[in-house]
């Protein structure tokens, strides 16, 4: 996959079995996030995702578990025809201020295949056991 990134900021896999490549905060100085505060953080990365794929931006589990930092719209989608800088919308769901340092790993990028459907307008849909049941309609066990 083609990638244009500032030196040291290209997405990287932390291990041979990693599904997501780490994205880093491309900042000139530390960013302070207060509890409940949101901020869009640049990564310095531009991608050329192949047609038929998407990039999914996901939180890093360590940041979420230890500090309450997560990606607001997780997973966020990067379309294959987008060429702008990858920006990460972070939120502090914790109870204390968190500092994001330049170069910190702030999110993960997962590439996934995409199928575009052809939608057919109809008034008749097939019946199922669930029917129109919504949230929690299939039980809790």
From TrEMBL:
Pfam families in UniProt: dUTPase (PF00692)
Positions bound to substrate: 60-62, 73, 77-79
GO biological process, one term: dUMP biosynthetic process
E.C. number: 3.6.1.23
A GO molecular function held by the record: dUTP diphosphatase activity
Occurrences of domain dUTPase-like (ranges): 10-139
Pathway of action: Pyrimidine metabolism; dUMP biosynthesis; dUMP from dCTP (dUTP route): step 2/2
Catalysed transformations (reactions): dUTP + H2O = dUMP + diphosphate + H(+)
Keyword annotations from UniProtKB, A to Z: Hydrolase, Magnesium, Metal-binding, Nucleotide metabolism
SUPFAM superfamilies tied to this protein: dUTPase-like
UniProt entry tagged with the keyword Metal-binding: yes
Cofactor dependence: Mg(2+)
Xref: NCBIfam families: dut, PRK00601.1
Family that this chain belongs to: Belongs to the dUTPase family.
Function as written in the Swiss-Prot or TrEMBL entry: This enzyme is involved in nucleotide metabolism: it produces dUMP, the immediate precursor of thymidine nucleotides and it decreases the intracellular concentration of dUTP so that uracil cannot be incorporated into DNA.
HAMAP family on file: dUTPase_bact
Protein name, as recorded: Deoxyuridine 5'-triphosphate nucleotidohydrolase
Species classification: Bacteria, Pseudomonadati, Spirochaetota, Spirochaetia, Spirochaetales
């Amino acid at each position: 996959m083609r990638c244009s990134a500032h030196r040291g900021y290209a997405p990287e896999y932390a291990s041979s079995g990693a599904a997501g490549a780490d994205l880093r905060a491309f900042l000139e100085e530390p960013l302070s996030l207060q509890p409940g505060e949101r901020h869009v953080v640049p990564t310095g990365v531009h991608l050329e995702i192949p047609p038929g794929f998407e990039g999914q931006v996901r939180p890093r589990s360590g940041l979420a578990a230890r500090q309450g930092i997560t990606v607001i719209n997780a997973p966020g989608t990067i379309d294959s025809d987008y060429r702008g800088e990858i920006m990460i919308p972070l939120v502090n769901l914790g109870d204390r201020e968190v500092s994001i340092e330049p170069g910190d790993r702030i999110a993960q990028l997962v590439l996934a295949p995409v199928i575009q459907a052809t939608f057919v307008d109809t008034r008749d849909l097939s019946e199922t056991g669930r029917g129109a049941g919504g949230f929690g309609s299939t039980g809790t066990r």
